[in-house]
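Memo to structure team: turn this sequence into structure tokens by end of day. - J.P.
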Amino acid sequence: MTSANRPLLLSNVRLADAHHGHDRQLVSVSVVGARIEAIGPNVAAPPDAIVEDGGGALLLPGFVEGHTHLDKTLWGRDWYVNEVGPNLTDRIANEREFRKSTGYDAGEQSLALSRAFLAAGTTRLRTHVDVDTDAGLRYLEGVLDTRDTLADVLDMQIVAFPQSGMLIRPGTDELLGNALAAGADVLGALDPALIDGDPVGSLDATFALAERYGKPIDIHLHEPGEIGAFTLKLLLDRVEALGMQGRVVVSHAFCLGALPEPTALLERVARLRVALLTSAPPSRPVPPLKRCRELGITILGGNDGIRDTWTPYGVPDMLERAMLIGMRYDLRRDDDLAVAFDCVSAAAASGCGFADYGLQPGARADLVLVDAQTVAHAVVARPARKLVMANGRIVARDGVLTNGV
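Reply from structure team:
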């Protein structure tokens, strides 16, 4: 692994452009410590720098995973035969029983998936981790170990998530508080009406916890149509009353894709600076991407679960997720595909609150090189990552982690 203390010059790379490819001017990037010092066509190598020739590859910022579940994954394990029932509650109960009966190791599994994310260019990541009265903080402790192990290269946010519900499982709210005290960065929540059966009480408890611990909120809102819209309005009331503007993400928000006229609700979401997360599932309604962006709403992308008891699908590759976002929203023009990439890069960093992101001096040195002519080409072709730099260190070459990662 390249030392973060020795300067590096990454030469002969091309900056991304939505409309042009091979004719773009070659630039160099100087990296000192963990930061980009300079970027441009005539950047000199810092003293005692390692020089890395990018070979004309396209330079992208490190990718951002806005919503996954590291503590659930079966990545690298034998195939799981999925025979679970069709309802959300079936999946929750099945997963809880599977992990309890098999001695599932969230530390081992989250580390395996995190390393795969890193090899594919993801350098910042938000993961939801189950906290419930069966498991207590066991899964959180495993993911905290993974975060510590990869702290030098992977910037990880952990959401304390009541996957089995909060009010319906007494004691969960106390466990969530313990999780926040133990190192979780964000407070999660789940379907206050359809799971907890009391949207007012559930949201009041969630916002009270967030206020007590000074944490932002990221809520799973699968609730459909008018039910989801009702819950979302209650949530927005609390954002406004408690001054939580810019500190709440609504994940999935299927209701916004099902309402016949969501403009008034979207305008309020925009005004209160609530961000929206979509995995762009093909089988569910999704928030209107272009309308959200027109209104100034930050809408970001994530994989959700990857190869777990809920779903056999998913890979830890944010270029593939950007492609799936493009397909779900019928994005075909190159500039539209650049929007899909934004959902897993700058918009995701903004929505999650990851600081110092991007390709400019002073930003954290998270860089990805791919053999592609444009961003659109990279999203569609998903080429192997020639090089991945995270926090000023080269961590992967040709899709394989380097020694020491």
